[in-house]
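Quick question: what would this complex look like in 3D?
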Amino acid sequence: MFPNSLLPNLFMEHINFNTNAFTRQLINWYDPSDRQLPWKEEKNPYLVWLSEVLLQQTRVEQGLSYYLRFKEEFPTIIEMAKASEDRIMKLWEGLGYYSRARNMHHTAKYIAFELGGQFPNTIEEIRRLKGVGPYTAAAIASFAFDLPHAVVDGNVYRVLSRVFGIAVPIDTTKGKKIFFDLAQSLIDPKQPGVYNQAIMDFGATVCQPQKPFCKRCPFSDECQAKKENTISLLPRKSKKIKRRERFFHYLVVRYGEQRLIRKRTGKDIWKNLYEFPYFEVPRMGFNQEIIQQNIFWEKVGLKGKVSIDFVSKPFHQLLTHQKIVAVFWEIDALNTPEIEGTDLLLIDKNDLSNFAFPKIIHRYLG
Ligand code: SF4
């Protein structure tokens, strides 16, 4: 339970910590040499955008290697725009949320070919770019162009909800507006990039989700959550994400040194990635009886002339709204697979590494 003083409709009156003081203390705390990251202090809008797109919903440690790889292969937005989508997907492989990769490539082509390579420099224009939401737009505007737009990400929600004792759920329209307005009122207009970097670093290194370092926190005297003993309850969300369970059986068809794969074209999160042909079933209990049925094999042009060599252990992947469980059937085709007129490709097994697969297949391939 939250103390009465934290009830959402009362929260504005509750803020008794001077917002100017918060900004001043935060900037005094900030040391740019802490938490060295290659995109920190970066002013090139293309590289700021690249880092922000790669880091969305990704841990910094994971995003780092992707950033370095993309930057090396595409030092400018023109080079990224000229790349094939398969190449972009391959470099992105393992990062998940593949629509971000497609949007990134779309935006690179738009800026390179329609804006003459000039990155937009107003918040309105930046916001109109495909795949750029309010957070990314504010980051680009403040870091690359020194425009006073506050970022609001998970770190910011956490820090502000705790310091100012705001229990309004962050996944509601009302909550989003309250946090956005508060964040915007706190930004230092003379150094917006420094302020934004400072609050993100503070959330990442001091006011962490679990076990924040309150003893070395510059706000430990003012922090409302600390006073009210509600640190572990903030920030608050109204609903839990429900994940749908899905069960896949991938057919890894081997014909000598060749393997059968296909490209996903349907509109979903794995669009334009490659995969082995698969069956989806309502539950995992999928047995030999079912697999003997011809329909199972006709899908991959095998017409039953196969020999099952191995069935893998289940592999798991957690997506935002789905929980995938997959097993991989390693199958030897005794005759040439009939793939004419299908979307299947027969490729050399050594070429598998040139194709981008969803994470769960990538993990199976090892
Ligand atoms: S006192 Fe603790 S909970 Fe409050 S802002 Fe500082 S680190 Fe976060």
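Answer marked as accepted. Residues 38 and 64 are 8 Å apart (CA to CA).
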